[in-house]
């Protein structure tokens, strides 16, 4: 008993540190993408760089898992394909298109309305009626989003960008549902789901570009990060290695130490890291109104998650 009690605070502390590292890594995806978009990369090309880079980086660990005798079960292939199409390819393409029209912080906060969308969808499907605290949280999230858009004060606002951001929120809501469905012992391992999904997502992005649904263009023009000029491939490596591969692996480790509830709350710090990263790396400074709206959105999402029944939060 004494040994277990001694280990628990240490495990929690390390889990918090890993969760913050994961949120920091995820949060920088927008600024890295913005540096590539600024020199002529299309959002689809940035998404392909992120997904293909992740597939390459996770290829070796995936090969080791397969070499050690792991074999897929019934339903694993479907889970990987759906995960690759919606949460990976869909979310990346929509989010980067939103960043192409809006500032990084605004695009991410619109995407983070996903818990509100998921709440409404589950209620419409005949789920439990939201608690009063949950409804208050949803209303606060909408009010905070209005402040974030800051239309009347010269903020960088674009209807197309908002629509892309909402589409990213839908994909993120699907990610929550798919992750919950895959969390049981019958689901594929997290490494297989992420690596396989990245491969599927890369193929989907290439197909979208090949048929001309969205432009797939890239340049070799140097990018600017924090006042430093860097080769184009630096942006691709950073968004794939730091903001995807490291972010997902540390996120999985954090959930293992903290549990999904606490880890999800710590994950809200991604918004803060994204805004600060955009300010530092690509000079996107938010207004005070947008900062207030962002705080309100994050607080509203925290309230919604706190108000959910334990089974739903898990």
From TrEMBL:
It holds the Pfam family EamA. The chain crosses the membrane at residues 16-41, 47-67, 79-98, 104-124, 131-149, 161-178, 190-212, 232-255, 262-282, 288-307. InterPro entries: EamA_dom, EmrE-like. Residues 14-149, 161-305 form the EamA domain. Keywords: Membrane, Transmembrane, Transmembrane helix. PANTHER family: ACYL-MALONYL CONDENSING ENZYME-RELATED, MOBA-LIKE NTP TRANSFERASE DOMAIN-CONTAINING PROTEIN. Belongs to the EamA transporter family. This is DMT family transporter. It comes from Actinomycetospora chibensis.
């Amino acid at each position: 008993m004494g040994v277990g009690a001694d280990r628990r605070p240490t495990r929690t502390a390390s889990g918090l540190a890993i969760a913050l590292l994961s949120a920091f890594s995820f949060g920088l995806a927008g600024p890295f993408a913005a540096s590539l978009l600024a020199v002529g990369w299309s959002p689809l090309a940035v998404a392909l760089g992120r997904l293909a880079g992740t597939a390459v980086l996770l290829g070796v660990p995936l090969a080791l898992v397969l070499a050690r005798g792991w074999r897929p079960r019934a339903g694993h292939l479907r889970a990987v394909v759906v995960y690759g199409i919606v949460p990976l390819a869909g979310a990346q393409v929509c989010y980067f298109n939103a960043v192409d029209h809006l500032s990084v912080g605004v695009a991410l906060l619109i995407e983070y309305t996903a818990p509100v969308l998921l709440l409404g969808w589950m209620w419409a499907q005949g789920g439990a009626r939201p608690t009063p605290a949950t409804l208050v949280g949803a209303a606060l999230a909408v009010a905070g989003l209005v402040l974030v858009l800051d239309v009347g004060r010269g903020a960088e606002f674009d209807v197309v960008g908002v629509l892309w951001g909402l589409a990213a929120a839908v994909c993120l809501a699907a990610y929550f549902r798919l992750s919950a469905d895959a969390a049981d012992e019958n689901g594929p391992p997290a490494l297989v789901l992420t690596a396989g999904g990245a491969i599927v997502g890369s193929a989907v992005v290439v197909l979208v570009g090949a048929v001309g649904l969205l432009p797939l263009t890239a340049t070799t023009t140097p990018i600017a990060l924090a006042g430093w000029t860097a080769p184009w491939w630096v942006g691709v490596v950073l968004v794939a290695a730091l903001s995807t591969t490291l972010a997902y692996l540390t996120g999985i480790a954090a959930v293992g130490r903290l549990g999904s509830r606490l880890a999800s709350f710590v994950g809200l710090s991604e918004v803060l890291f994204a805004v600060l990263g955009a300010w530092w790396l690509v000079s996107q400074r938010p207004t005070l109104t947008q900062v207030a709206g962002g705080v309100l959105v994050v607080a509203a999402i925290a309230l919604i998650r706190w108000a959910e029944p334990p089974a739903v939060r898990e």
